[in-house]
Specification:
By secondary structure, the chain is α/β, with parallel strands linked by helices. It has helices spanning 15-21, 48-52, 66-79, 92-103, 118-128, 172-181, 194-197, 234-244, 250-260, 263-282, 301-307, 324-333, 380-399, and strands spanning 85-89, 109-113, 134-138, 154-160, 185-189, 207-211, 225-229, 287-291, 314-319, 337-338, 348-353, 370-374. It is 36% helix and 15% strand. It binds pyridoxal-5'-phosphate.
Length: 400
Amino acid sequence: MKEGKKDGRAPARHPDTTVVNAGRDPASYHGFVNPPVYHASTVLYPAAEDYLAHRARYQYGRRGTPTTEALERALQELEGPQCAGVALLPSGLAAISAALISILHAGDHLLVADSVYGPTRSFCDQILSRLGVTTTYYDPLIGGAIAGLIQPNTRAVFVESPGSLSFEMQDVPAIVAAAHGKDALVLMDNTWATPLYFRALDFGVDLSIHAGTKYFGGHADVMLGMVAANAAAVASLKNNVRLSGLCVGPDDVYLGLRGLRTLAVRLERHYSAGLAVARWLAQRPEVLSVLHPALETHPGHALWKRDFTGACGLFSVVFRPVPQQAVHAFLDTLELFGIGASWGGYESLAIPFDCTGMRTATRWAPGGPTVRFHIGLEAVDDLIADLERGFAALAVAARA
Ligand SMILES: Cc1ncc(COP(=O)(O)O)c(C=O)c1O
C-alpha cells in the first residue's frame, strides 16, 4: 500500500492481499508501515466547550484508539461486504460471551451445538441460566431439522464448525435458513477456519466469533477475541461491549494486527502440513480413524468441500483400543509436540481428550482413546519421525 492511499477505497481483492493491506494507513503515521501502539486512557480536549460537546476523534482509551481501529478495520474488510462492524475482546471466550449477551434477554431460549467448545457450554449453563436464558443443546449434525427445536422464544442458534475436539461439520447454510425463517439469529465460533477459509457472514451468520488467541496471534503469546457482526447484530454488539467497559490492552491489539499480516501464509502451511500428517496417521495400524474434515473419509467431508476453502492444522485421531497409559507414553515420548491446549501458534501440540462428560444431546463413543493434534510450522518429516518414536513407545507400554 503506497503512502497516502487510504484503506477502504480499494476494489475487492484476494484475501491474501487483504490480510497484508487492510487497516493500514501509513500516511497518518509519517509513512511508517505499521500504526503506533497507543498506550492511552485520557484524551485531552482543546477547550471546555469541546470537552462538553465531545468534539474529538477519540474520546477515551477504553472507547478506541488508532491501534484498535486498525485491527477492527482490517477484520471488517476480511469478513467481507456483509460485515457492518467488529468488536475486540480480551479473549476468545470473552468474545463468545459478549456476542451471546449482546443479543439475549431474560426469557429467551438459545440452541447450542453439543460439540461446542467446553467453556462456551459452561457460560451458557452457569451464567446465561442465572440471567433467565435457557439453553438446549442439539446434535451438531442436525442440519435444517433444527427448525423442529426452535421455540417461540428461541432468539439464537450457536454453531461451531467443525467442533474443535470432535470435528463434526455443521450444515451452516441449512441452520441459518431454519433460524432466520423463525426470526432467530445465528452465532458461529469460526476460530478453526478463520475468515480466510470460511467467511461466515457470507453464509448468513449474524455474529462471527474468533479466538484471536489462535491463528490471528499465531505465536502463542497473546489473548484476544474478535466478533464480526452483520447489519442485524452490529448495533447491539457494539453497544453491549461499550456499556460493559470491555477493551483490549494496546500491545495485545498490536500483536493481533501483526499476526494478521502473515495469517494467509501461515495457514496455508498449517493446512498442507496438517493434511500430510493426518494422511500419514490414517494409514498407521494403531489408528482407528482420523477426524479431519479435509480427509475424504471424514463424514463431514462433503460439507467441508462445499463451504470451506481450506483447513487449519487442528484435527483429532481415534486410536485403536489400548490402555490409557499407552496413549500417555505416546504423548510423553513426543519431543516436537507440546502437551498444551491453545492451538494456532507456530508450534505443534498434542493432547489427550474425552468428550463423554461434555455431551448432553449426543453420545460420544469414538471407539478408542482420542488425541487432538495441532500441526505447527515445523518440517513434516521431522514431525512424522517424532510420531514414529511415539508409536514405538505406545507399543511398548501397551504390552506392559
Ligand atoms: C474453538 C475455540 N473457541 C474459543 C476458544 C477460547 O479462546 P480463548 O482461549 O482466547 O478464550 C478456544 C480456546 O481454546 C477454542 O478452541
